[in-house]
Every structure is written in C-alpha cells, then in structure tokens.
Amino acid sequence: MADNGKKSNDLLAVLSGLMPFGGFLGKLAHGFSGSLFDGENQVTRYEESHGVLITIDKLNKSFDDNHVLKDITLEIQPGEIFSIIGPSGTGKSLLLKHIVKLLIPDSGSVLIDGQNIHEPQLGETARNYRYSMVFQSSALFNSLTVGENVGLWLREKRVCNERRIQRIIREKLQLVGLEGKEELRTEELSGGMKKRVAIARSLAMNPDLILYDEPTAELDPVTSDELARVIMSLKEKVNLTTIIVSHDLNFALYLSDRVAMIHDGRIIEIGTPASIKKSQNPLVRNFIYTTTKGIKGEDD
Predict the structure, then answer these.
(1) Per-residue pLDDT reduced to its tens digit, 275-290
(2) What pLDDT is attached to residue 119?
(3) Rounded Cα gap, residues 203 and 270, in angstroms
(4) Which domains does the chain show, CATH number per domain?
(5) What is d(CA 5, CA 181) in angstroms, rounded to the nearest whole number?
(6) Is 106:267 a contact under the CB 8 Å cutoff?
(7) What is the pLDDT of residue 267?
(8) Buried b (16+ CB within 10 A) or exposed e, 32-55
(9) What is the 3-state secondary structure (H, E, C) of the chain?
(10) pLDDT digit string, tens, across residues 157-167
C-alpha cells in the first residue's frame, strides 16, 4: 500500500475476500467478523446491541492424535466480562476460535443466545447477534489514520452518512480515551494506543460480543493496567458480552467478573477472581504463585 490508489485497491480486495488474506480470516484479523459483512439485515439493527449468552457443552477438538480440548463446558452470562486463563499451549486461543467459528468442534456444541452456531442450517441472515475480535497484533491498517481505521467498516457498508460516521468515530475514540486523535498515523501510536484504536474500531460495529486474544501481549504493566481500565469502563457504557483469553493473571483477575482456568485442555476451575485466588486446587495455586507476584489468597 505504497500509494493511495494501491491502498484503496488492496483494502477493497481484502474486504471482499479476493486476496489470500481475505475472506473470513482476513476480516476477523482486522477486527471484522463475517456476520457483519454478509447480509444487509445486519446493518439495519446497527443502533441496537445486547450482551449475548454463550453456552459451551462438552466441546472436544483433536488434531491427529493430539486431543487438545477435552469436554469443555461453561456458560458466559450476557454482559459479563469473562476471562479464560492458563499456561501457554493449553487450548485457550483454540477455544476462542470455536466461538467465532474459525474451527468446528469434533463433538459438543457452542450456543449463542440459544443458537447452535455450528449447525449448517444456521446462515448469516438467521444470526441475531454481531461480534468482533481484537487480536494480539491490533491488526491496524498502517496506511490509514486512526479515524480511517475506526470508520473503515462503517464506510465500507455505508451504514450511515459521512457526518454520522464522523460522530461515531469521535464517540468510540472517546470511549477508549483517545479523543481528538483521529488524524494520527499508526506509526505515531504506542503499543497501548494501538490496542485502544483496535477496540474503538470493533466498537464502531456496535457488537453484542467482543473477544480479546492476549490483549496485553507486548505491553508493559502500566499500559496493561490502563487497558484493563478501558475494558472495565466499557461495561458501564456499552451493552455487550466480553471474553478475554490471557496468560496475564493480574490482568484477568483485575477486570473480570468470572475466570475459567484451562489446564491440559480441560476447565479445572471457574469462579470469581476472589474465589480463584483462594482456590485450594494445586494446579491453580501453582499457576498463581509461579507466574504472578503479589497475588495472595485472603488467608495468606
């Protein structure tokens, strides 16, 4: 994307799925979900949003002889901030990919607001929710300004007129603490600012569900804390369900309503941050005390 013409052509190609990195994967990697691009009915209810109920029942996934996810069962309530924690390689991000339909389980189900999302007969037009994903890398378009990144989907789908788009961009940037930063280029942003722009871009779609994959990756502790405060403040201002996958225990315990820990492909504990800190499960305690400083149970 060395010039404006090539930039426009490449963007349209990615968004229409014509490039190798297009299609559903391309849209997701840049904060867009397939359900947002397919079907004008998704745009007609743009002003509405609701936190969704997610029910996962006995979900299993194997790759050859490697049984990665084993009878995963959990329920995430509408409007909840729910974190999935655990050591690297235990299946956290893999579970997230099932929730956004990047992978199909070998057995078990994922239901969102009562709909089994992996049923073949459930087309995009039957889906009654919108979702978006914030990836580790933020996946911003380097050739666009902050405002252009945030407003990209709105313009591509012609959701509303330009005046309204500009107002939405300002509103979403204000929500993440970046008011007045519309004209900055991505190379001018710190790592934490890039994360917040990626969140604002996802919020511009007015999603019912937002997912974060390792949001504190490559961030220092102070910036991670700022990001946690942003995500927490959104709960008071935006009606959506939040799922976070993270190995950063401090981050997860600080902002979550509930936390689930995965070990060896299984959910071994689910509870509030307070109950997780007090857990007597040796695997949970070992994870807490060997990866995090300053976390103590109430009786320690």
Answers:
(1) 999 999 999 998 887 6
(2) 83
(3) 28
(4) 31-291 (3.40.50.300)
(5) 24
(6) no
(7) 96
(8) bbbbbbeeeebbeebeebbbbbbe
(9) CCCHHHHHHHHHHHHHCCCCCCHHHHHHHCCCCHHHHCCCHHHHCCCCCCCCCEEEEEEEEEECCEEEEEEEEEEECCCCEEEEECCCCCCHHHHHHHHCCCCCCCEEEEEECCEECCCCCCCHHHCCCCEEEECCCCCCCCCCEHHHHHCHHHHHHCCCCHHHHHHHHHHHHHHCCCCCCCCCEHHHCCHHHHHHHHHHHHHCCCCCEEEEECCCCCCCHHHHHHHHHHHHHHHHHCCCEEEEECCCHHHHHHHCCEEEEEECCEEEEEECHHHHHCCCCHHHHHHHHHHCCCCCCCCC
(10) 777 788 888 89
| Structure tokens given for 31 | 């904060």
Q: Would you state the structure tokens that stand for residue 107, as one six-digit string?
A: 């057995």
State the virtual CA torsion across 259, 262, 263, 265 in degrees, nearest 10.
170
Output the six-digit token pair for 4: 């404006």
Q: Is a pLDDT exceeding 80 seen at residue 153?
A: no
First to last CA, the chain: 56
Sign of CA dihedral 220, 223, 225, 230: negative
The letter for the amino acid at 187 is E
What tens digit of pLDDT does each residue of 72-112 get? 999 999 999 999 998 888 889 899 999 988 899 999 999 99
pLDDT tens for 185-229 read 988 888 888 988 998 998 888 889 999 988 888 888 888 888 898
User: Which of 14-18, 20-24, 169-173, 206-210 bottoms out in mean pLDDT, i.e. has the lowest?
Assistant: 14-18
